[in-house]
Amino acid sequence: MRNHSSRADGAPAGVGMVGTVVAASFGFALVQLDVTVVNVALPAMGTTLGAPVSALQWIVDAYTLAFAALLLSAGFLGDRFGARRIYVGGFALFAAASAACGVAPNLGVLVSARAIQGLAAAAMLPCSLALLNHATGHDPRLRAKAVGWWTAAGSITIASGPIVGGLLLGAFGWRSIFLVNLPVCALGAALALRLPEAPWHPPSRGFDLAGQLLSALALAALAVAVIEWRPLGWADPRVGGALALGLACGLGFARVESRSVHPMLPPGLLRNPVFRACLAYGIVVNFTYYGMMFVLSLYLQRVLGLAPVQAGLAFLPLTATFFAVNLLSGWWVARAGSRAPMVSGALIDAAGFACMGVLGAHTSVWLLLPMFALLPAGMGLGVPAMTTAVLASVERSNSGVVGGVLNAARQAGGAMGVALFGALCAGGDAAIPAGLHACALIAVGLLLLAGAWAARVVRAAEPAPRAA
Q1: Residues 104 and 195 occupy one common structural domain
Q2: How would you class 448 by CB atoms within 10 Å of its CB: exposed for 0-12, middle for 13-18, buried for 19 or more?
C-alpha cells in the first residue's frame, strides 16, 4: 500500500484545497450533467429514431440504471486500488462512450452506449467524493464547506443540463450533446492527474460478484416493468415477468448479502439510523427531481409548444438558485449540523411540487418561474446536508464504499422516477398535464415523509465518526 504525504490540516501536499475541490468536483459535475442534458433533446431523438415515449425513457434510464448498479463496485475498487486511478480511468471510458453515442446509427446502439456512459460515471462519482473526503481530513467544518462546493457543482450541472442541451440542439443537432463531452473529459482527466492519490486500503474483503449481478438485474427488471406497464398493461406476461424477476433478484440480493463473507455493503451499515434516514432522503429527492425533469421537458415542448432552445432556457432559474443555495447549505451545516437544512429543504421542495397542480395545456411559461426557484432551493439545501451527515457517521476508510451506496440508491431512485413519472404521462400529448399533476402529488407526499424521518433521526449537532 502506498500512502502519499498530506499536510497537517488534511489537505494533500502539493495541491491547494481549492485545486482539490475543483478537480474532485469536475467529474461529479460531468456525470450529473449527462443525467439531464438529454431531456430537452428527447423529442428530437424520438423524431429522428422513430421512438415512442417508452423508448425515450430508456435513453435516460440506461445511463442512470448502469450508474446505480455499478456504483457499489466502483466504490470498492476505488478504496482498494486508489481513488485517483479509478477516477481518471472513468474519464477515459466516459469519453469513448460519449463518442459512440454521438455517432449512434439507431436506438439500440444509443441505449447501449448510454449504459457504458453510466458505467464510467459510476467509476468517477464515489472516487471524487473519496478524494475530497481525504483532503478535508478530520475537520467537520472544512468538510461541510468542501462538500457544499462539490454538491453545488453537481447540482448546477443537473439544473443546467436542459439549458446546455437546448442550446447545443438548436445550434448543432442532438448528437452534439454527446460529442461535446470529449474535450471536457480530457480537461477533467488532466486536472485529476495533478492530485496525489488517496491512501490505498489493504484488500480486507473480496469482490461480491453475486451481489453485484443480482442488484443490477433487480434494478433493470423493475425498470422494465414500470416503463412497459402503461403501453402493455399489467396483464401482459412481459410486464409481469419483469416484475417477478426484479422482486426475485431483490430478495436474492438481500439473502446473498446476509450470508456473504465479502458483502457489497459494509457490515452494519444499514443498522446505522442516520444512514438509513439519509438514504431514504436521497432516494426521494432524486426520484422526484429526475422524474419531474423528464416530464417537464415533454410538457414544455409537446404541450406548450416551445422550441428546444426556449425549453432549455426555461430551466435557467434552476441553475442560479442551485449555486447560491448549495453554498448556503454548506455554511449552515458547518454551524448547526445537518438536520435543519435537510428538513427545510424537503419542505421547500414539496412546496415547489405542490405549485405544479395549477399547470395546464395553456399555462404561461412565466408561471413556472416560482416552481423552478423552489425546487432547486429545497434540493440545494438538503442534499449537501445529507451528504455531510453520511460522511460524519462512518469511518473515513469506508468513504468510497459508503459514497457508492448512497449515490447508487440515489441514481436508482432517479431511474425509477423517470420510469414511473414517464409511464404516468405516456398516454399521448393530451395526457401529459393530468399525468404531471399525479406526479406532483406523489412527489409532495414522499418529500414530506422524508423530511419527517430526517427531523426524527438526524442530530442537530454533527455526530462523531463511527464504524459502519
Answers
A1: yes
A2: middle
C-alpha distances (whole Å) from 25 to each of 22, 81, 207, 361, 410 are: 5, 20, 27, 39, 18
3-state percent breakdown (helix, strand, coil) of the chain, nearest 5: 80, 0, 20
CB 20 within 8 A of CB 11: yes
Residue in 437, 460, 452, 458 with CA at minimum distance from that of residue 347: 452
Reduced to 3 states, what is the DSSP secondary structure of residue 155?
A: helix
| Pairwise CA distance, residues 47 & 276, whole Å | 42
Q: Cβ contacts of residue 168 below 8 Å, gap of 6+?
A: 174, 176, 177, 180
Using an 8 Å Cβ cutoff, are 254 and 434 in contact? Answer: no
Q: What CATH number has the domain bearing residue 64? A: 1.20.1250.20
* Cell triple for 455: 427531523
The rounded Cα 337 to chain-centroid distance in angstroms is 23
Asked if residues 337 and 459 have their Cβ atoms less than 8 Å apart, the reply is: yes
- Look at the alpha carbons of 10, 16, 19, 21 in this order and tell me if their dihedral is positive or negative: positive
How many beta carbons lie within 10 A of that of residue 259, not counting itself? 9
Residue-wise pLDDT for 304-356, tens only, equals 888 888 888 887 777 667 767 766 777 787 777 788 889 999 999 999 999 99
The rounded distance, in Å, linking the Cα atoms of 199 and 353 is 43
Amino acid at position 147, single letter? V
Q: Domain range for residue 231?
A: 208-261
φ, ψ for residue 211 (rounded to 5)? -65, -40
The phi, psi pair for 349, rounded to 5°, reads -60, -45
Q: For 437, which DSSP code?
A: H
**CA gap 292, 285 in Å, rounded:** 11
Residue 179: enclosing H or E segment and its boundaries? Answer: helix 176-179
Residues 139 and 245 in one domain: no
The amino acid present at 309, given as its one-letter code, is V
- Cβ-count burial 331-348 (b if 16+ within 10 Å, e if not): ebbbeebbbbbbbbbbbb
Split into its structural domains, the chain has a count of: 2
Instruction: Rank 10-14, 35-39, 224-228, 250-254 by mean pLDDT and report only the highest.
Output: 250-254
- pLDDT value for 412: 83
Look at residue 297 and give its three-state secondary structure. helix
Evaluate the CA torsion angle 246, 251, 254, 255 in order and state its sign.
Answer: negative
Neighbour-count burial of 137, counting CB atoms closer than 10 A to its CB (0-12 exposed, 13-18 middle, 19+ buried): middle
Is 137 in contact with 9 (CB distance < 8 Å)? yes
Residues 254, 297 share a domain = no
Residues 192, 328 within the same domain: yes
Residue 207's pLDDT band (boundaries 50, 70, 90)? low
What one-character DSSP code corresponds to residue 162? H
